[in-house]
Amino acid sequence: VFGEADLLPSIIVDRYGEFLVLQTLSMGADTLKPMLVETLKELTRPALGIVERNDVRARLLEGLDSKKEVLWGFVPEQIEIQEGPVAFLVDIRGGQKMGFFLDQSENRLAAARYVTGKALDCFTNTGAFALHFAARCESVLAVDVSRESLAQGRRNAERNTISNVEFREGNAFDLLRDLDSRTAWRSRAPSPGTRRSTSGP
Fold first, then answer.
1. Per DSSP, which regions of the chain are E strands?
2. pLDDT surpasses 60 at 182
3. Would 40 be classed as within a structural domain?
4. Which residue in 43, 66, 106, 187 is deepest, having the highest Cβ count within 10 Å?
5. Are 63 and 116 part of one and the same domain?
6. Which CATH number goes with the domain that contains 93?
């Protein structure tokens, strides 16, 4: 459920198999939380647990408390999901945002079809784009300021036996200024309107 895009303002729900993550970002949505939990339990049987990830700044504008807790059932510290050919360990109880950037799933799968050469993944978080790029690239540099996120990214790489991704801690903007100008970072995507000639050189 993507809030306004699904005509449910301030309500976000991510589903990771048998586990759900709920955000209610306004006072109106927050008052509906008990009903939302019961509705989600009914619609997603046999779900095992629902966790609340209301630990975002937007709630402060509504005068709401920051909350992060299991609302129903059992939710483990780590779960494993499969996105295309790559498996990821996800911390839905404490990871950034709601554990994983599920709204970028289609973008990751699409971008992975076109990258080539050396790839740079800034703000990598737990390495989702980088690990998808690894299969087609010579090497991938994945950068983030969060040591914990990078550690999770390395575990994800090991889980998928991926060895050509370097996880580096640092500010991406500083890195871009400091990188050797001779380093070539490439990604190729054909223009939708381009046709390749079949006659002549």
1. 11-16, 19-24, 49-54, 67-73, 79-83, 86-90, 118-122, 139-144, 165-169
2. no
3. yes
4. 187
5. no
6. 3.40.50.150
The Cα–Cα gap between 180 and 101 comes to 30
**Of 51, 1, 50, 60, nearest in space to 26 by CA:** 60
What is the percentage of the chain residues whose pLDDT exceeds 90? 75
Phi/psi class of residue 123: alpha, beta or left (left: φ > 0; alpha: ψ in -120 to 50)? left
Task: Please tell me the total count of domains within the chain.
Answer: 2
Under a CB-based contact definition with an 8 Å cutoff, are residues 138 and 185 in contact? no
pLDDT score recorded for residue 183: 58
DSSP 3-state of 70:
strand
Same domain, 127 and 37: no
Helices (H), the chain: 27-31, 33-43, 105-111, 128-133, 147-159, 172-178
Q: Give the pLDDT of residue 10.
A: 95
The string of pLDDT tens digits covering residues 10-40 is 999 999 999 999 999 999 999 999 999 999 9
Answer for the pair 124, 151: CB distance below 8 angstroms, yes or no: no
87 and 69 co-located in one domain = no
pTM (two decimals): 0.81
**What pLDDT score does 96 carry?**
85
